[in-house]
Amino acid sequence: MVKKTFPEAMARIYYRVYVCRLCKSKMRADPAKVKLGKVKCRKCGSHALRPKKRPLA
Length: 57
Ligand SMILES: [Zn+2]
Hints:
Layout: H1 7-15, E1 17-20, E2 26-28, H2 31-35, E3 49-51
Antiparallel strand pairs: 1-2, 1-3
The structure holds zinc ion.
């Protein structure tokens, strides 16, 4: 049986998660704030963030 996963819920969970391109640390942030450059990595202070992709498994 396939696990019951709700696509909308998964999207909601991963949509707001960003990964630092430099140190690969994850953080939850508002997409609008990321776009405006207001969010920076709390570990290395970088503004280079990318949205986290949904895992395939
Ligand atoms: Zn970082």
